[in-house]
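Structure ticket #2291
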Amino acid sequence: MFGAYYSPAHCCAPWANAAVRAQADTQRPVPIYVNMHVITPRYDLQALRAQIPLLADTIPLNNCSQAPLTTVARAAANRFLDDWNRHGMDWDAWISEVERARRVFATLINADVDEIAVMSSVSHATSAVASALQFTPARNVVVASGAEFPTVGQVWLAQERRGASVRWVPVVDGAVPANGYAPAIDERTVIVSAAHAYYQNGAIQDIAAITQRAHEHGALCFVDAYQSLGVIPVDVKATTIDFLASGTLKYLMGTPGIAFLYVRRALIERLEPTVTGWFGRVNPYAFSATTLDWAATAARFDGGTPPLLPAYISRASIELLCALGIDAVHEYTQQLSRLLVQGAEQRGLVVHGRGLSAPKTPSTAIVCVDAHAVEAALRKRNIIVSARGPAIRLAPHGYNTPTEIEVALDALVDVINA
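Resolution: structure written out below.
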């Protein structure tokens, strides 16, 4: 067992305010030792934690669903609100901030800024991509996996009215098998849809290998990276993927209401999405309702009025993570993930999926009878987790500590056994 001595009595302690115990980590200098193994990030953990007020009395482990508010994000929101209050309308400044957000997202994934569209959600992004595809009798198959978040799968199913045929790659033991796509992709495939990480348990797919397989058969590849960006480095040039979509409210520590879409430059000019809006035009300010032209960049996938306030928050949040170093965050959160899985198994909890035997994000799902009831019970103990289907998800980020994971696992056992 790691950390403090574990016993059934220890497990069933009444954690009225579990975060108080976890705060002990902020009172000691890093590195933190767990069973003589150093668990320490390559950045100032205490300085990062100081920017998250929620940590004063709460343990947030729900980053697979919604990250906590940082002082950086709040200050960015206030900049927009103060400007709005002071000027009434400051359109040029607001649009400039959207462009900054576009640029910082491009940097995050090693794309060029002209390959990034600004969307309202991943649903919006997926729908825009789908609307730009042609489904012909000779090539009409969409290959998607059972690991897709429902919105993505539903968008592809909606294309069946336009002649598409969706072919599903099943999830086996909580993950899509590495060779699962091979028999599904053929010369009739238009596009392969692959979630970078399974929303249920964080299992990661090899998007470079999937893309290569798709390209070998003349198909495109769309990646939903919502559950991975922020804790898993992604390089769109190295993977050669064609499309990547993600919002910012999860591991990117931003807010709902905005998403970004990467479109590989070589594809841009041949795609004309019918899910569109006035900011997808060559000159949005021409205000010509009778003209339908297309921006020369991925901005042709932009929709209507941009998400202004979310752009302020998202830019600041992504810059915060980039300042820490995504590689450093990945390294540290993988250590936290190992502690989480090992601690769960040592406590007799059942981990959903393959646990540590396959690549994963920090998100770990624990099988339980009534996940929503467990989520509510832990919330009363100031521990925030996320229920999803038959499991409760614990998803640490780069600001969490080993002690917080231990406290949360003890409380989880207590709640499940109650």
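Closing remark: Residues 1-21, 23-31 have pLDDT under 50 and may be disordered.
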